[in-house]
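Bug #77: duplicate submission created two jobs. Keeping one. Sequence:
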Amino acid sequence: MTLKQLQYVVTVADVGNITEAAKRLFIAQPSLTASIHELEKEYGITIFIRSSKGVEVTTEGDEFLGYARQVLEQTNLIDERYTGKQKGKQRFCVSAQHYSFAVEAFVELLKEYGGDKYEFHMRETQTYEIIDDVARLRSEIGILYLNDFNETIIRKALRDNDLTFTRLFLAKPHVFIGKNSPLAKKRALSLEDLKPYPRLSYEQGSHNSFYYSEEILSTVDSDKELIVCDRATLFNMLIGLNGYTICSGVISEELNGPNIIAKPLKVMDHMEIGYILPGNIPPSHLTEKYIEMLRKLT
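Kept job's structure:
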């Protein structure tokens, strides 16, 4: 294996086409194909499935590419440290539940460390996908919560994938509502107060288990359920339908506007919000800086 071969497979994966990747790499297509075949043979894996339409990354190829990108990133850091020159684009990816502080820290990281060329990914996604992204090294870091209800299941999933969890802060349950909601005048809300209103929660896909829910108290019965996929839709429905969602209470007015407010929820529960990392790979420079910014905001 060589660094050049790793660069080849990462470029092919990014482009999705051998011919186009060869042009970008300034190499003949047969030479590129042969180099990838040699790498696959060396490790006894199939990285790409080839067809007339291009290439598709296999499951084992996806895992291999995660490691390849980590190696290339670390190599670039060494070059920058000892030559003073930045090579190529800065790349960074976060997978997180729908937390405004995670986006705010991401924005600050990009402003300070993005440089002239960058490719940053902010994936607000499902809980299972967060764990899978970090396990497969598609993301450098994931952000999610634990509590008494889901902790056993989530920690087992983390152990099975050799991931570590580190607490950022402990939050008391809150409710997000629109500022003009009939509930807005109350100082704190009870579950009984919420009963007449639609409860909003995030779609968890094929792993829509209560244990993977992004919202605590997901097993409490509600007559009116609305399931959404993104934060903008959820906030619009909170306002338009006088709905609510149970959350950490941490919100950024700068990013989310003044129309959503948080009210304490009168229940005995908590959310231990933290980040997950691969257990056997040291965090990159950007990951460490992102964690610093998370801590400043929480």
